[in-house]
Write a structure and sequence with these properties.
3-stranded antiparallel beta sheet; alpha/beta; binds 3-methyl-2-oxobutanoic acid; 8-stranded parallel beta barrel; binds zinc ion
């Protein structure tokens, strides 16, 4: 790296817009969306999609609710041309869906593009040429006027050919490519020159797409550029202002959101931000960011897993684990305190707020979860996962949500660190099933020194008498006891057999599973005369026996 980067790089010049309005606005509705997955996204793949992959992705985009889809660059290759023809000839686009095609401002390419559109219902012809100083100087070696002439001539060539698309509803779109690196006054001049040719009206608008082809500044600068254009262009009411951001500085989403505040009507982007270099704008994120603020995004991501599947299968790309909303880990908490907060938040939501939310009197406000994962088809089971960073809350949550094991709070405090120690030794994440095995090993499967051979009770006038046959370190022990319940009788019996005194300081139980052979689980805390406290747990089809096993489990852990 440079010792003094200012010798090699310079700051981006700000836009003069002292009375900018966008910072005081809020978004209240979804923009028009245009997916460019099949064009910009496809152009960025090491192995571009074949026709059947493009068809599959096209159907998925339609299903998500996209009404404008840039399907390709028909003049660029036979695959692109054939794909376009198949969409049209096989009538694959629903009536309300516009097929958008991209073309450079060159006659041969425009000719071939128009050919590819014959017989279509609704099309957007998207013409572009690059306008930034670097593009003018390095790529084209042309003056500002010459670059403007490329745009104007291309616009004329398209206009001349429109009568050939009789019966097709047509919208025209122009992009001054590299707009964000272009002087705003010049971008306006070129755009207005194209408008002069196409003559849009408020009834027959044209799309003016203002691309952040390469992110060169902070998102507030892009917003200023968009607001400047919206305020200074002629015939604003005849234009649909469209945003097309890339993500070179990792602010593609922010630039689009601020661009919408600045007055844009439409957004181009791709699923999960696939696209050249660091990608295009991620439409999923912008749509779900709106959703998170209670705005209907008009795109349906209620089964995000299936969208990821199609996307990964067709593009060969993968969605990273930390990708907003979609990544495997974005609704997952490993940290104990986060798990605890989520567990409490979800419980409060289920109990109090979900019913109130249905009446519009409560809103989602669960710590660490920006939206309800269930809304996009994610499962609560994914939310809490356990590794060595996790605490008792996560352990208890998994045991309860996966196996219906409802550990009493105090017992969670005892078992949490035990489980944590074992997970730490494993040095990896553990599953709910592994936690259950640890719990069984620690409490249920303990049979030494005490184990149960037989336990019977009879009750008369509120007094319960018990007869117990136990084994202690292999030696048979029998005793009788009585009390106001089976457990009191058992504790009394132990005292008559010379076992050091203890009392039962906490008890709870519940059914584990439904059915005739349903098992019950009992949790018992004992306190010895020396003040030692231990939990035990027992499982049996008979609840009385489950609690006897639980007492023995606690004694075995002394
Ligand atoms: O990024 C870009 O500028 C483009 C244009 C063709 C719109 O993809
Ligand atoms: Zn692009």
């Amino acid at each position: 790296m440079q010792k003094d980067p200012s010798k090699k790089y310079r700051p981006f010049p700000p836009i003069h817009l002292p009375d900018r309005q966008w910072p005081n606005r809020v978004l209240t509705r979804a923009p028009r969306w245009c997916s460019v997955d099949l064009r910009d996204g496809n152009q960025a793949l090491a192995v571009p999609m074949n026709v059947s992959q493009k068809l599959e992705l096209f159907q998925a985009l339609v299903k998500l609710g996209f009404k404008e889809i840039e399907v390709g660059f028909p003049s660029a290759s036979n695959t692109e041309f054939t794909f376009n023809r198949r969409l049209i000839e096989e009538n694959r686009a629903p009536d309300e869906v516009w097929l958008q095609v991209l073309v450079q401002a060159r006659e041969d390419l425009i000719e071939r593009t128009v050919e590819s559109l014959l017989g279509a219902k609704k099309v957007i012809i998207h013409m572009y040429n690059s306008t930034s100083p670097a593009q003018r100087r390095v790529v084209f070696g042309k003056s500002k006027d010459e670059i403007k002439a490329i745009a104007v001539n291309g616009a004329k060539m398209i206009k001349e050919r429109l009568p050939r698309l009789k019966g097709t509803e047509i919208m025209l779109q122009y992009s001054p490519e590299s707009f964000s690196a272009t002087e705003v006054e010049y971008a306006r001049e070129v755009s207005e020159a194209v408008m002069e040719v196409w003559q849009p009206t408020p009834q027959r608008k044209m799309i003016l797409n203002l691309p952040d082809t390469v992110e060169v500044a902070m998102p507030n600068v892009y917003a200023d550029q968009i607001e400047w254009m919206c305020r200074n262009l002629k015939h604003r009411d005849s234009l649909i202002i469209s945003l097309h951001t890339h993500n070179d500085r990792c602010t593609g989403v922010a630039a689009t959101e601020l661009g919408l505040l600045a007055g844009a009507d439409r957004v181009e982007g791709t699923l999960f931000g696939n696209g050249e270099r660091t990608g295009n704008l991620d439409i999923v994120t912008v749509a779900l960011n709106l959703y998170m603020h209670g705005i209907d995004p008009k795109l349906d991501f209620s089964n995000l897993h299936s969208v990821i599947d199609v996307y990964e299968r067709c593009t060969g790309m993968t969605v990273p684990a930390r990708h907003p909303y979609a990544g495997e880990l974005v609704f997952t908490a490993f940290s104990g305190s986060h798990q605890d907060a989520i567990k409490k938040g979800l419980a409060e939501w289920e109990k109090n707020q979900a019913p109130a939310a249905a009446k519009g009197t409560a809103y989602w406000d669960v710590p660490y979860l920006t939206i309800d994962p269930a809304d996009i088809g994610r499962e609560y089971r994914e939310v809490i996962r356990v590794n060595s960073q996790s605490g008792k809350g996560g352990v208890a949550y998994l045991l309860e949500s996966e196996f219906g094991i409802e550990l009493p709070k105090d017992m969670q405090r005892e078992f949490g660190p035990i489980a944590n120690d074992q997970v730490d030794k494993l040095g990896r994440e553990v599953s709910g099933a592994e936690l259950k095995t640890m719990f069984w090993r620690e409490y249920i499967d303990r049979s030494a020194p005490w184990s149960l051979k037989r336990f019977e009770t009879e009750s008369k006038n509120g007094v319960v008498k018990c007869r117990a046959k136990l084994s202690r370190a292999g030696k048979a022990i029998e005793f009788k006891g009585e009390g106001n319940g089976p457990l009191a009788a058992l504790v009394h019996g132990f005292s008559t057999a010379g076992v050091p005194r203890f009392e039962i300081s906490a008890y709870s139980e519940h059914a584990l599973s439904a059915g005739e052979t349903a098992a019950a689980i009992a949790y018992i805390q004992i306190k010895t005369a020396d003040g030692l406290i231990r939990w035990g747990a027992g499982v049996d089809t008979n609840i009385e026996l489950a609690s006897v096993h639980a007492v023995l489990s606690a004694l075995n852990r002394l």
